[in-house]
Design brief:
The chain is of the alpha/beta class. The protein is built from 44 helices and 21 strands. It has an eight-stranded mixed beta sheet. Strand 7, helix 14 and strand 8 form a beta-alpha-beta unit.
C-alpha cells in the first residue's frame, strides 16, 4: 500500500467548465480565439475536501508556491495528481507503462471533463482495480470524441504562462486526436502526454505498433537518478513565474494572434473549398468589425449571404450578378476582394467606369488596407505604373478606370505576371455595349480569359438583358435577385395628373392622384410642369433629385424653384449653408457662381460637368449631410457617385436631344430611396402629351441588349486589339488570331455580322490595314495555307499599343514629335503642351478669334515661333480676327489644338481655373476637363516615346509636364494632393495648418485635424489619414523593392558554380 502523499489545500474558486469543439467547425475554437464569457457558476461557499493518495480527506498543505493554487483544468491539483501517480508507480514497479499511462490520462482527462465521476479515488491500488480504470478510461475516450459543449468562462490574462502553454498544448493534442479513430486515437494522445511530461522513466518507450502490443518495461531505467516528476514540474512553473513580463500588452498580443490564426484558417478554408467558411465568409472576424466601424454595416442582406455562399464561387468559377440600383452589389464584391487579398494572397483588379468613382473607392478602401495589411493603388488619369511594382510582402488592390485597367493587364501579360492577378471585378458590366469604352473593356476581359486560367472574373450591373451572351463570353454563372432595401414606386405625370406605373394594367398605367398645389397665373407660366409643387412635397425635410436634359436646364430649374419658394426655406440649417458658400468662395479664389450664390441659401444647387472637381465634391458632401435638400443634375450623376434621394424627378424623357433609353431610365430612378432612412422611394417622370406613347413603350419595354463594340469602334476597337495581340505575342498568326476572336463577345455574337463579311474576313482586313500603316510586319494572302505565316509588330506599333494611343492619331503624333526634334522650343513649356494636347478634344473647340489674337500677342517672340513651327502663322490669326476672307485652306485640327494649348499654358501659369475660364470664355468645368484629359494624354505620349529611341529627349520633359498637368498647383501642394480625396482647396487648408508633407498627414491625429481644418468632418479626417498612410506605405515598399533589386545576386555570374 502506498504511503499517503502530501495533502493539498484548495482555494475556494468558481467551477470552470471547458470543452472543445472541433477546430474545423469554428475558427474561434482554439483558446486564443474563444470568446470570453462571464462566470456562469457561483463561487462555492465552502472549500471542498481533497482526497489524498492514501484515501483520507484532508485540508492540510505543504507550504510551497504551487500547493495553494488550484488546477486550471479541473478540481484536482495538477501537482497532487502527479505526486499520486509517482507514489503508485514506485510501489508497483511491475505495472506496465501502458497501464500507468492510462491511469494518468484517465485522471487528467477526468479533470478536463469536470469530474463526471467525482467519487473516482486516486488512492486505490492501480493493479487491483485495473478493470475500473479501464471503465474510467473508456468514459474519457467517449468524452474526447463527443464533447461539443461551448467554452465556459476562461480569462486568459489570469493564467500563469506555464498554464497558458499547457492549455495550448492540450488544445493541439485534442485537435490531433480527432483525426484518427478507435484505440489508435487514444494511444497517440497518451504518447503525446508522456512526451510532455519528459519523465526519464519513460525514456525507452518503443515505437507504437498496431493492436494491443505492450510497452517495454522500465527496469532498464535508473530510477534512483531520475528527478521527481513533481519537482520537475514545479521547477518549470517556478521558472515561468519568475520570467519577466513582456512590455507588449497581452491583450494586443492575443488580438494579433486571433487575427493571424483566423487568416490561416480562412486561407486553408478557401484553398480546400470547404463548406466551413470561417468566422466571416472565410475572412478574419476583424473584417466584420471594420465594416461596422467604417460603413455602419451590422449584418448582410439575405441575398448577399446567398450570393457569397454560391457553390460556383467556392469552385472559383466566373460570376455575373445583377440587382437593382442600391441593392448592395458593391459590398459583395468588396468581400470577395478581401478574400482574394487575405486568404489566397493574390492581387486584385477592380475596374470602375469613371475617374471620380475610382478616387472615391480608393478613398473608401484605404482604411481597410491600412488595418488588414494590403496596398490600394490608383490607376486613373495620369496615375499608375506600368508594369506595377512587384511587391515583396503585401498584395495590391488596383482600382482602375476602363482604359487604365486595359493598360495594366497588357503590362502584366507582357511581364508574364498575369497569373499573379487572382481576381478581376468589373462594376457596371453593361458598359460593354457602350461605344469605345465598351470595346476597351471587352478587349481587357478577353485577354484575361485567354491568357490566365487562374484569374477569376466577377461582373456586376443593375441593367443587364442578354445575359446569355455575356455568360458565354465570360464563361460565367449568373445570379440575380430583385431585392431592394427600400421599395420603389414609379409614377409618370401628365398635366396635373399622376399615374402609377403598373405592368398589369392595359396601357401600363393606373390613376394615382391629382396635384393639389394651387398655382397663380404667373407661376403657371413660369412652371408649367409643376416642378415646384412636386419638390415642396418632400423638401426640406427629405431630399430630392431633378434630372434635366442639359446643363443649362439644370441651372434654370434650380433658379426657378428658388424664385417661388417661401422665405422659411432659408432658415433651414442656415449656418451650414453660409459655411458652404464661404467654402465655394475659397475654392474659386474669391469667386463663386452667381447661380449657386442665389440658390444655396434655399438648400438648392445644380450638379453637372460645368463645375470644377472641388465644387462638385463640396456640393456632394453638403447634399449627403442634408445641408442641401435639392439637386438639379444631368444624367451623369446617375452613373457616378452614389447620392440617393427620397424622390427622383425626371424633368423630361430626354438626355440632351436623344430620347431616354431604358438602361438610363433605370439608372436614374434607382437613386430613389435611401436605405436605413426612407421607408419608400418615388420616381416621377414628367411627360408631355406628344411623348405619351413613347413613354408607355419605354416603361414597359425590356432593358437594351448589350452588343460588342469592337467592330463599330474600328480604330479603338478591333484594330487596336489585333495590334496588341501580336505585340504581346498572344496570337501571331491568322489562325491564332481567329481562335482568340472567337472567344470575344464579338465572336459569341458573330451571327449578327452581315453576310457579306465573315469574322475571318474582318480579321484579314484589319491586319492588312495595320501592315499598310507600318504598325505590323508580315504578309497576308488569300490562300488558306498562309494562315500560319507569322506576324510581327514594328517599333511604331509597339509604341502605339503601349502608349494606348488611338490608331487614328498615332501617325500624326509620330510626325509632330519628329518635327519637334528639329526645333523644340524650350524657352517655355508651350511647345510641349501642344504635343500633349489631346486630339479627341479638338473637335468640340470653337476658337474665339479675338481671344486667340490677344493671347498670341501676349507671347514672347520664342513662344510665337511655336505657332509658326506647328503651322499656324500670325498672319492667319490676324486675318481671322479681323474677319477677312482667307483663300488658303488650313488644317482646323492644328488650329484648334494650338488654341487649347494656349488655354493649358495660361492655366499652368495662373493655376486658377476661374480666371482662365473667364479669359477664354469657357465654362470652368470644360477647362477642368481639358486639364484632366491633357494630363492623361501626356502620360500616354510619355509611354509612346519610351518605346522609340529617337524620342529619348522627350522622356524627362514629359515626365515633369505630366506631373504639372496632373495637379496644376504650386509645387509645395503636390505632396498633399497625391493623397486620395485631397483636392486643391483642402490641400491649401492643410498646408496653411502646418501639414506640409505626406509624413505629416500620415502621422496626423484625426481629432486634431477636425479642430484645425474648417468644414472637415471626423469621418473625412480619418479617411485622409488612412489614405496618407496607404500612400506612404506604397512609396516605402517601392523603395525597398529597388534596394532588393540592387542587392540581389545575379544568377549568371561568370565562373559561378
Amino acid at each position: 500500500m502506498a504511503e499517503p502523499g502530501p495533502a493539498v489545500r484548495r482555494r475556494s474558486r468558481p467551477a470552470r467548465k471547458r470543452s472543445r469543439a472541433p477546430v474545423q467547425l469554428r475558427a474561434a475554437a482554439s483558446p486564443l480565439a474563444c470568446k470570453r464569457l462571464s462566470p456562469s457558476v457561483e463561487e462555492a461557499s465552502a472549500e471542498p475536501p481533497v482526497w489524498a493518495a492514501g484515501g483520507e480527506c484532508t485540508n492540510d498543505s505543504e507550504e510551497d508556491m504551487f500547493g495553494d493554487y488550484d488546477s486550471f483544468y479541473g478540481n484536482d491539483s495538477l501537482l497532487a495528481q502527479v505526486d499520486d501517480m509517482e507514489q503508485v508507480y514506485l510501489q508497483d514497479k511491475d505495472m506496465d507503462i501502458k497501464a500507468a499511462g492510462e491511469f494518468m490520462l484517465g485522471n487528467l482527462q477526468s479533470g478536463t471533463d469536470q469530474r463526471k465521476q467525482s467519487d473516482f479515488s486516486t488512492s486505490e491500488n492501480a493493479a487491483g482495480h485495473k478493470a475500473e480504470r479501464d471503465d474510467g478510461f473508456q468514459m474519457n475516450e467517449n468524452d474526447l470524441i463527443d464533447n461539443k459543449e461551448e467554452p465556459g468562462d476562461f480569462i486568459l490574462e489570469d493564467l500563469p504562462s506555464s498554464q497558458f502553454l499547457y492549455l495550448e498544448e492540450m488544445d493541439e493534442l485534442s485537435s490531433a486526436s480527432r483525426k484518427s479513430a478507435g484505440m489508435e486515437r487514444i494511444d497517440n494522445y497518451m504518447n503525446s502526454c508522456l512526451d510532455k511530461i519528459s519523465s526519464p522513466s519513460f525514456c525507452h518507450v518503443a515505437e507504437h505498433r498496431e493492436g494491443n502490443t505492450e510497452f517495454p518495461m522500465v527496469s532498464k531505467c535508473d530510477l534512483s537518478k531520475r528527478e521527481s516528476l513533481k519537482d520537475h514540474l514545479k521547477s518549470a512553473m517556478t521558472g515561468n513565474a519568475k520570467a519577466q513580463t513582456p512590455l507588449v500588452s497581452k491583450t494586443k498580443q492575443l488580438k494579433e494572434a486571433i487575427l493571424s490564426e483566423e487568416i490561416c484558417v480562412a486561407r486553408k478554408t478557401i484553398e480546400s473549398s470547404s463548406d466551413d467558411i470561417g468566422p466571416f465568409y472565410g475572412l478574419p472576424s476583424k473584417v466584420k468589425d471594420l465594416l461596422r466601424q467604417f460603413r455602419g454595416i451590422e449584418t448582410l442582406y439575405e441575398w448577399q449571404h446567398d450570393c457569397l455562399t454560391l457553390e460556383s464561387l467556392h469552385q472559383r468559377k466566373n460570376l455575373i450578378y445583377s440587382l437593382p440600383t442600391s441593392g448592395g452589389k458593391t459590398l459583395v464584391a468588396e468581400i470577395l476582394i478581401l478574400q482574394e487579398l487575405l486568404c489566397r494572397q493574390k492581387d486584385v483588379l477592380m475596374i470602375l467606369p469613371y475617374v471620380a468613382i475610382v478616387q472615391e473607392k480608393v478613398w473608401g478602401l484605404s482604411s481597410f488596407g491600412v488595418e488588414l495589411g494590403f496596398l490600394v493603388e490608383e490607376y486613373a488619369g495620369s496615375k499608375g505604373r506600368f508594369p506595377p511594382i512587384k511587391r515583396r510582402i503585401k498584395n495590391s488592390l488596383y482600382i482602375a478606370t476602363i482604359e487604365k485597367g486595359h493598360a495594366l493587364v497588357n503590362s502584366l501579360i507582357e511581364t508574364e505576371r498575369i497569373d499573379h492577378l487572382g481576381l478581376v471585378v468589373v462594376d457596371e458590366l453593361h458598359m460593354l455595349g457602350e461605344g469605345s469604352r465598351g470595346a476597351v473593356l471587352e478587349m481587357t476581359l478577353a485577354k484575361i480569359l485567354y491568357t490566365s486560367k487562374n484569374t477569376q472574373i466577377i461582373g456586376m450591373s443593375a441593367t443587364l438583358n442578354n445575359v446569355g451572351d455575356l455568360q458565354k463570353f465570360l464563361q460565367a454563372d449568373y445570379y440575380t435577385n430583385n431585392f431592394r432595401p427600400v421599395e420603389l414606386k414609379e409614377y409618370i405625370k401628365i398635366r396635373d395628373t399622376i399615374y402609377e406605373v403598373d405592368g398589369k394594367a392595359e396601357n401600363g398605367f393606373t390613376f394615382s392622384r391629382l396635384l393639389s398645389f394651387k398655382y397663380s397665373s404667373n407661376l403657371e407660366k413660369a412652371d408649367p410642369d409643376h416642378i415646384i409643387a412636386l419638390v415642396t412635397e418632400v423638401i426640406p425635410k427629405y431630399s430630392c433629385l431633378i434630372f434635366c436634359p442639359t446643363k443649362k436646364n439644370c441651372e434654370n430649374v434650380a433658379s426657378m424653384v428658388c424664385k417661388y419658394l417661401n422665405k422659411e426655406f432659408r432658415a433651414h440649417r442656415e449656418k451650414e449653408k453660409k459655411d458652404l458658400i464661404k467654402n465655394l468662395k475659397t475654392i474659386g479664389n474669391g469667386s463663386i457662381c452667381p447661380v449657386l450664390k442665389h440658390t444655396i441659401p434655399f438648400g438648392i444647387a445644380y450638379h453637372h460637368s460645368g463645375l470644377t472637381n472641388d465644387e462638385r465634391k463640396s456640393i456632394e458632401e453638403a447634399y449627403s449631410a442634408g445641408v442641401l435638400c435639392l439637386l438639379a443634375c444631368t444624367a451623369t450623376l446617375a452613373a457616378g457617385v452614389n447620392l440617393p434621394a427620397r424622390r427622383v424627378i425626371l424633368r423630361a424623357p430626354y438626355v440632351a436631344r436623344e430620347f431616354l433609353k431604358k438602361n438610363q431610365y433605370k439608372q436614374m430612378i434607382g437613386r430613389a430611396g435611401r436605405a436605413g432612412i426612407d421607408s419608400a422611394g418615388e420616381s416621377i417622370l414628367i411627360v408631355q402629351e406628344k411623348d405619351k406613347q413613347l413613354v408607355q413603350d419605354l416603361v414597359n419595354s425590356p432593358l437594351e441588349n448589350c452588343y460588342s463594340n469592337l467592330l463599330p469602334e474600328f480604330t479603338k476597337g478591333i484594330q487596336s486589339l489585333l495590334l496588341s495581340l501580336v505585340g504581346l505575342k498572344i496570337a501571331v498568326t491568322l489562325e491564332e488570331i481567329y481562335s482568340f476572336m472567337c472567344h470575344t463577345l464579338l465572336g459569341v455574337q458573330q451571327q449578327l455580322l452581315s453576310k457579306e463579311k465573315s469574322l475571318l474576313d474582318i480579321i484579314k482586313e484589319g491586319v492588312e490595314n495595320l501592315i499598310e500603316n507600318g504598325l505590323l510586319k508580315g504578309k497576308i494572302s488569300e490562300k488558306d495555307d498562309n494562315s500560319q505565316s507569322i506576324l510581327a509588330i514594328t517599333q511604331l506599333g509597339k509604341a502605339t499599343y503601349k502608349g494606348s494611343i488611338d490608331l487614328a492619331y498615332c501617325n500624326a503624333l509620330y510626325r509632330e514629335l519628329k518635327k519637334g526634334l528639329e526645333g523644340l522650343v524650350l524657352e517655355s513649356n508651350l511647345h510641349l503642351l501642344y504635343l500633349a494636347t489631346p486630339y479627341d478634344m479638338i473637335y468640340n473647340c470653337n476658337p474665339d478669334w479675338m481671344i486667340y489674337l490677344r493671347q498670341f500677342n501676349q507671347l514672347s517672340a520664342a513662344e510665337q515661333r511655336v505657332a509658326d513651327i506647328v503651322g499656324v502663322p500670325e498672319s492667319f490669326i490676324t486675318k481671322k480676327a479681323s474677319g477677312q476672307a482667307i483663300r488658303k485652306n488650313m488644317d482646323s485640327a492644328i488650329i484648334n489644338r494650338l488654341y487649347l494649348s494656349f488655354v493649358l499654358y495660361t492655366l499652368l501659369k495662373e493655376t486658377n481655373v476661374w480666371s482662365v475660364s473667364e479669359k477664354f470664355n469657357m465654362s470652368r468645368g470644360y477647362v477642368q476637363s481639358l486639364l484632366t484629359s491633357a494630363a492623361s494624354f501626356a502620360s500616354c505620349v510619355l509611354h509612346f516615346c519610351e518605346e522609340l529611341e529617337e524620342f529619348w529627349v522627350y522622356k524627362a520633359l514629359l515626365t515633369e509636364l505630366t506631373k504639372q498637368l496632373t495637379y496644376c498647383v504650386k509645387a509645395e501642394l503636390i505632396p498633399l494632393m497625391e493623397v486620395a480625396g485631397v483636392l486643391e482647396a483642402r490641400a491649401k487648408q492643410l498646408y496653411n495648418a502646418g501639414y506640409k508633407t505626406l509624413a505629416h498627414l500620415a502621422n496626423a491625429n484625426p481629432e486634431t485635424l477636425v479642430k484645425m481644418i474648417e468644414h472637415l468632418s471626423r469621418c473625412q479626417a480619418k479617411q485622409i489619414v488612412s489614405s496618407a498612410k496607404m500612400l506612404l506605405s506604397e512609396k516605402a515598399e517601392a523603395l525597398q523593392e529597388e534596394v532588393d533589386e540592387l542587392l540581389r545576386m545575379p544568377a549568371d555570374i561568370p565562373g559561378a558554380c
